[in-house]
Amino acid sequence: MLDLTLTPDQMKLQERAHAFAIDVIRPVSRHYDTTAEWPEPIFRLAWEQGFLQAAVPKSLGGPGHSQMDEVVVNEEIAWGCAGMYTAISANTLALAPLHIAGSPEQKKFWMTRLLEAPRLAAFALTEPEAGSDAGAIACTAILNRGVYLLNGTKCYVTGGAYADYFTVFAKTDPGKGARGLSALVVPRATPGLRIGASMDKMGQRASNQVTLHFEQAEVPLENRLGSEGMGFAIAMKTLDQTRAIVAAGGVGLARAAYELALEHAKTRIQFGQPIFSNQAISFLLADLATKIEASRLLTWQAAWMTDQGLRNSKQSAMAKTYATDTAMEVTTNAIQILGGLGYSRECLAEKFFRDAKLMQIYEGTNQIQRLVIAKEIQQGR
Ligand code: COS
């Protein structure tokens, strides 16, 4: 039975994450947005709190966050700064293929590296010609005497400039389409791997995205996750899990913008009364509050299903779409309610608006999510 009551431990985690967002993230979020510097000191503190390595299981000495823990924490981090949220949660995305298909030895070797220091892992699926159509990957990994020779290009790799290793999807059998993909763990120091310049972005500027170029990069056979040809299924299962975390990011960001707009509506006096007294404003805020709550419920449902081991392709796609479309709607309307102040860099509303846009694009555009939902309902799931 679906039970979305937070446990006492989850409530404490939520409080700790919110305090982190208020005390550590918010005071510097504008600085990192303006400069697009890499917020290394913040990540060290996030690591000390166990947020950066959250996906490392307890059995390996990590925090072992469940999916519910993750959505609770990430809503708060995204409330603080969506760019930092993306950079921090990218570790959970990169570790998901290891959780899904790694052997006990692979899990131990790669995951415990994140416990030793504030290290990052990065997920490399997208290519210049394979974004929404993930099965069209052109990167090849051809086995030659126990070593894969990896060639090709990956783009928009979050955290890539700083990552210790990458979970990379490549064609090990180019004749087999999506069924010819495999997942490999590629250490940063691999000869033949060149990391491109960081992308200059409109929003979420505290996170980092780069292009990776592989030229005859040698990856040992033992770095393959699961069997050959399982790569596409591993990638899809990963995204089923992590889209709920993106949804949580959307909820946190939407909440941040909503709180700003509500406060303004209650205190801004025009025509002798707070602008909240106008139903044009109060009904708008009522609708936004409703959509934020609905987004959270969809998010928690999708996360709960992952924790129960249930297939949640439909529910996580619904949560991701609804919550991130809501984040865009709330951040847009927050600027409208704040008026000229909302458009000014004096106020965080314009940052929230720029940050929200990326959430409708990454981890599968919201158009692709609707495709996933449509396929699932067509099949009666
Ligand atoms: N879990 C397990 N297996 C899955 C799966 C899932 N959630 N979704 C698909 N598969 C399997 C299918 O069962 C099918 O297996 P068989 O070949 O054995 O029949 C195979 O994968 C291919 O599935 P499908 O035919 O649905 O693939 P499509 O190429 O039509 O595309 C979409 C599927 C569009 C859903 C996929 O390409 C996608 O998610 N694209 C977006 C990628 C994305 O999110 N990129 C962002 C990267 S993260 S920054």
Kindly describe this structure.
The protein is α+β, with helices and mostly antiparallel strands. The chain is about 55% helix and about 15% strand. The protein is built from 12 helices and 10 strands. The protein has helices at about 10-35, 40-50, 65-80, 80-100, 105-110, 115, 230-265, 280-305, 315-340, 340-345, 350-360, 365-380, and strands spanning about 120-125, 140-145, 145-160, 165-170, 180-185, 195, 210-220, 225, 270, 275. It has a 4-stranded mixed sheet with strand order 1-4-5-8. A 4-stranded antiparallel sheet has the order 2-3-7-6, covered by helices on one side. A two-stranded antiparallel ribbon has the order 9-10. Helix 1 packs parallel to helix 3, helix 3 runs antiparallel to helix 4 (about 80-100) and helix 3 runs antiparallel to helix 8. The two termini are about 20 Å apart. Bound molecules: coenzyme a persulfide.
Which key phrases capture this entry?
10 strands; Butyryl-CoA Dehydrogenase, subunit A, domain 3; 381 residues; 53% helix; binds coenzyme a persulfide; four-stranded antiparallel sheet; Butyryl-CoA Dehydrogenase, subunit A, domain 2; Butyryl-Coa Dehydrogenase, subunit A, domain 1; alpha+beta; four-stranded mixed sheet
Low-confidence stretches: none
Helix content: 40-55%
Q: How much strand?
A: 5-15%
Distance between the termini: 18 Å
Q: List the helices and strands in order.
A: HHHHHHEEEEEEEEHEEHHHHH
In total, how many beta strands?
A: 10
As for the number of domains, it is: 3
What spatial order of strands do you see in the largest sheet? 1-4-5-8
CATH homolog superfamily of the largest domain = Butyryl-CoA Dehydrogenase, subunit A, domain 3
Helix- and strand-based class?
alpha+beta
What binds here, in terms of ligands, is:
coenzyme a persulfide
Individual helix count:
12
CATH fold label of the largest domain: Butyryl-CoA Dehydrogenase, subunit A, domain 3
| Rg (C-alpha, Å) | 21 Å
**What is the CATH class name of the largest domain?**
Mainly Alpha
CATH-defined architecture of the largest domain:
Up-down Bundle
